[in-house]
Design brief:
Blueprint: E1 4-13, E2 16-26, E3 31-35, H1 42-49, E4 56-61, E5 64-65, H2 71-77, E6 78-81, H3 93-98, H4 111-123, H5 139-152, E7 157-161, H6 169-186, E8 189-193, H7 197-203, E9 206-211, E10 214-219, H8 221-224, H9 227-234, E11 236-243, E12 247-255
Parallel strand pairs: 3-8, 3-9, 6-7, 7-8
Antiparallel strand pairs: 1-2, 1-4, 4-5, 9-10, 11-12
Amino acid sequence: MVTIATDTVKFSYGSAPVLYDVTFRLETGTILALVGPNGSGKTTLIRCIDRILHPEGSILINEQNIHTMSRNDIATTIGYVPQNGTKITAATVFDVVMMGRTPHMSWRLGEGDINRIEYAIRLLNIEGLVDREYNELSGGQQQKVLIARAIAQDPKLLLLDEPTNSLDIHHQLEALATISDISRSTGMTVVMAVHDLSIAARYADMLMMLKNGTIVAIGKPEELITPERIREVYGVEARILHDPEAGLIVAPLRAVAGVAL
């Protein structure tokens, strides 16, 4: 499906640098969770990969520089779910999910498009919302609709910026299990920014720890989620618990004075 490779990616908002020399490679079908404190560069990195932002350095998708790809190539390859929803006027839930098919359509919806839309709606369990106006939904419901839209797009790479931010615990687990199942069954690569380290450890194959715009470490969750790393990156003392079903659980204990964030 899709490999991602970045080389010395840098980005600044005006005179304020946000990313410094971000270099990594992600193989096809991997679920990568970006973790780190607020302002560490997670959202900015996702927006650079989707070519919403234009950084220095290179970002390659299947060895092709994204800056040489057409907008339609980007749209048929990458699905993106933003952190704070999307302003959409006068559209039903079905209409919003249908927007995911736009890069694949010519003049009208075909049978394959409709099947993919219905598939995404079923996966996110939003059948009961299809005739509702998107703007009348709760924040959590809107988030599920946007995830369904991205799945309807049939992307090879899915970018998720804090996808569980507005969801309750039940819908967090439901949405992430769905994304994980799709990745496992299709080889779709996933990059998601996540605040909850326990959730990240449970659903991601790899973690990238960011702090102040640089990669502190990248590796498997069991390698990176340690009391020492959490103290270094977050300035927090934590206990790491191991549950046979839930996996790694991070229990924060107290903030540590004097650790620069």
